[in-house]
Amino acid sequence: MGAAPILEAIHRHERGRILAALMAELRDLDLAEEALSEAMESALVHWGRAGVPDRPGAWLLTAARRKVIDRWRRAARLAARAPDLRLLAEADAAAREEPAPEIPDERLRLIFTCCHPALEAKTRVALTLRTLGGLTTAEIARAFLDTEPAMGQRLSRAKAKIREAGIPFAVPGPGDWAARLGSVLAVLYLIFNEGYAVTAGAAPLRVDLSAEAIYLARMLDQLRPDEPEVLGLLALMLITDARRAARLGPDGALVALDRQDRRLWDQAGIAEGEALVDRAMALRAPGPFQIKAAIAALHTAPEIDRRQIFLLYDSLLRFEPTPVVRLNRAVALAETGEAAAALALVEALRVDLHSYQPFHAALAELRARAGQGAGAAEAYGEAIARSGNAAERAFLRTRLAAVQTAADPKKKAEQSSAQVQQGGKDTEGTPVSHEPR
To answer: Are 36 and 18 in contact (CB under 8 A)?
Structure first.
């Protein structure tokens, strides 16, 4: 394998760990990112000529460190950097003599630094997605329904504030834990979601991001055992990730949750997640991630209690009264048989969620159920246009084709005849969304 594919794999799997290790030494996020970028450029040339080293991640960390040393030595104000330069030189000398077997894991410290209360809540999440998850500015902007230039400016201001305000690179003590935990959990959940439901590109899944989020949630659980919302988040991710193998059909399109092959689900992951939900609920300190985990657990039951799921969304609204939760609540209401009432609720969210792709997908499905073929096709077209993921677009195009076929009597008759001959199913009962969000 050439240097470029290996570098791409390292960027996906080890970037957060390398960047966190650099941040621990430099205390300057912009400088750490620049040094790592320069090290990767050097690796592309050096590895292509001399071959990939045994520990490519450790090689990149050392190369990035040397880039900073060279930069500081060339700087006009070298005296101000003398203490930092000495520490970096010592670390570099130690690496030359005996390279570390692995990169030190400083990721939790990086998360808590990015989630410092001095930063706005939205900025905390966006910055950690950029640094730890390695998401692009465009991907983060989509996650926040924001423009790419605005998100780029937000990230730049945040990194400057960390540097100028001297925000400590540390896991907070017990007294500061509560103020920081909510942002950290939100970060991990967004990283997981970007891996489980990629917003852009040909790949429908990025298992590395999902695994990273689960790994860090386990670290949080070890750091603070029996923290109910940590247990809830970990449970939610495990139960959701357990369905990953069944999410795609043979054609590469997403498969609706109710039509997934349950034999492909990871039953051990589901069982662990359900046990964590029980542990969290026993602590009697309810929170949004516990509720979301309970909803996910109900979706894995042999007989899904749709009414209970709807009631849980009512409870979730008390914690997160957001348009997205209201959309999910409406979807849950539709699944109880109240599709007309659900459609009215979804239509009312248009102003708030006009840029949110799942809104248009849910609107399309509910319009189709109401017999509004033209409106459904229009909404499906909007959902397809706003989807950056190939597998999701394939799923939506299938739904659009079904709506168009239903509107054409000749095609509908041909489809019905084919279904009878093949023993196939029609589209009735298709859930509003392919995954609860």
So the answer is: yes
The one-letter code for the residue type at 72 is W
pLDDT higher at 417 or 305: 305
Other C-beta atoms within 10 Å of 17: how many? 21
| pTM listed for this prediction | 0.74
Per-residue pLDDT, 429:
33
116 burial type by CB count under 10 A (0-12 exposed, 13-18 middle, 19+ buried): buried
For residue 75, the 8-state DSSP code is: S
Cα–Cα nearest to 278, from 226, 216, 210:
226
Tell me the β-bridge partners of 254.
248
Lowest mean pLDDT of 144-158, 179-193, 355-369, 417-431, name the range.
417-431
Cα separations in angstroms, 57 against 149, 374, 390: 31, 53, 31
The type of residue at 108 is L
Beta carbons of 64 and 39 less than 8 angstroms apart: yes
* Kind plus residue range of the DSSP H or E element containing 389: strand 388-389
One-letter amino acid of 321: P
Mean pLDDT, residues 183-204 = 75
Contact by Cβ (8 Å): 221, 234: yes
The answer to whether the CB of 168 falls within 8 A of the CB of 113 is: yes
Burial 253-292 (b: 16+ CB within 10 A, else e): bbbbbeebeeeebbeebbebbbebbebbbeeeebbbbbbb
User: Which of 38 and 202 is assigned the larger pLDDT?
Assistant: 38
**Distance from C-alpha of 72 to C-alpha of 357, rounded to nearest angstrom:** 46
DSSP secondary structure string for all residues of 88-118: HHHHHHHHHHS--SS----HHHHHHHHT-TT
If we measure between CA atoms, which residue out of 393, 159, 26, 66 comes closest to residue 401? 393
Which segment of 180-184, 258-262, 352-356, 366-370 scores lowest on mean pLDDT?
Answer: 180-184
What is the torsional sign of CA 347, 352, 357, 359?
Answer: negative
Residue type at 379 in one-letter notation: A
* Stretch (H or E) spanning 296: helix 288-299
One-letter amino acid of 83 = P
Within a 10 A sphere around the Cβ of 382, how many other Cβ atoms? 18
pLDDT of residue 105: 84
Name which residue leads in pLDDT, 196 or 331. Answer: 331
Estimate the crossing angle of helix 306-319 against helix 323-335, to 10 degrees.
170
How distant, in Å, are the alpha carbons of 125, 336, 346, 434 from that of 341? 34, 11, 9, 20
**The pair of three-digit structure tokens given for residue 27, joined into one six-digit string:** 């205390």
